[in-house]
Amino acid sequence: KAGVTQTPRYLIKTRGQQVTLSCSPISGHRSVSWYQQTPGQGLQFLFEYFSETQRNKGNFPGRFSGRQFSNSRSEMNVSTLELGDSALYLCASSTGTGGDGWFFGPGTRLTVL
Amino acid sequence: EDKVVQSPLSLVVHEGDTVTLNCSYEVTNFRSLLWYKQEKKAPTFLFMLTSSGIEKKSGRLSSILDKKELFSILNITATQTGDSAVYLCAVSYSGAGSYQLTFGKGTKLSVIP
User: Fold this and answer.
1) Does B31 touch chain A if contact means CB atoms closer than 8 Å?
2) Is there a contact between B7 and B106 (Cβ–Cβ < 8 Å)?
3) H or E segment at B19?
4) Closest approach of A59 to chain B, Cα-based (Å)
5) Which of A31, A73, B6, B59 has CB 3.0 to 4.6 Å from A96, enough for a Cys bridge?
6) pLDDT the model gives residue A84
7) What is the least distance, in Å, from the CA of A67 to any CA of chain B?
8) pLDDT tens by residue, B29-74
9) Cβ-contact B76, B17 below 8 angstroms
10) Touching check for A48 and chain B: CB below 8 Å?
């Protein structure tokens, strides 16, 4: 099976812009979770989507949003970018039942200037 | 507040040494504990543990979970330079119909020849 894919792999934006990141889960997986990884905070949960519905959301401002499509692909959007949004954004794929593992994509490295 | 604590935060060993990494947790509605290895890229899945006392093994790596004392250990025997990485512990728990991972800060392992 193909693994989790994320595009783009690298992004450079300026403050105030917005950005959209994409994630395609492992075939057959219906859950996609998003995480932000920074050197200071480690890996922090953003949100989880299952069958096109957001089931859970982490403690991030409303500038962070996401969605999931009927083919389980997911996008996350960050509006009005701030310098502190510079991070590695990881998406993780699972069946969504909690009984198996979460498998991560390669991540998108976002740099905000 | 749910939390996952890993120790030590960093460790330097010589090739051939055996290391033990620790992870303690406090979460409600615990489902499983996962170990990941992260080099300069996305976390790679190592183990998922759901039952106490049952050791999971893969080559030189092994892990065990104690659900009574709320901790897990990851052992690496006969370490090699390729084992140098950050090892992340994550706990899966359920809530509001969703499953998410809470990560520890990681243990940075450096193996020197």
Assistant:
1) yes
2) no
3) strand B19-26
4) 12
5) A31
6) 96
7) 16
8) 888 999 999 998 889 999 999 988 889 999 999 999 998 999 999 9
9) no
10) yes
The 3 state secondary structure assigned to A69-111 is CCCCCEEEEECCCCHHHCEEEEEEEECCCCCCCCEECCCEEEE
Q: Is B10 left (phi over 0), alpha (psi -120 to 50) or beta?
A: beta
Q: Which amino acid appears at position B86 of this protein?
A: V
Q: How far is CA B11 from CA A67, B15, B17, B41, in A?
A: 40, 13, 12, 20
Q: Is A55 on the interface with B (CB under 8 A)?
A: yes
Whether B54 contacts B64, CB under 8 Å: yes
Tokens of B68: 């009574």
Question: Is B10 in contact with B112 (CB distance < 8 Å)?
Answer: no
Say whether A104 and B42 touch across the interface (CB within 8 A): yes
The per-residue b/e assignment along B63-99, b for 16 or more CB within 10 angstroms, e otherwise, is: bbbeeeeebbbbebeebeeebbbbbbbbbbbbeeebb
Nearest CA distance, A22 vs chain B (angstrom): 15
CB-CB under 8 Å, B41 with A101: no
Taking CA–CA distances from B86, the nearest residue in chain A reads A42
- Interchain CB distance below 8 Å, A102 and B34: yes
Tell me the pLDDT tens digit for each residue of A32-41: 999 999 988 8
Do B1 and A59 meet the contact criterion of CB atoms below 8 Å apart? no
Distance of CA B5 to the CA centre of its chain: 10
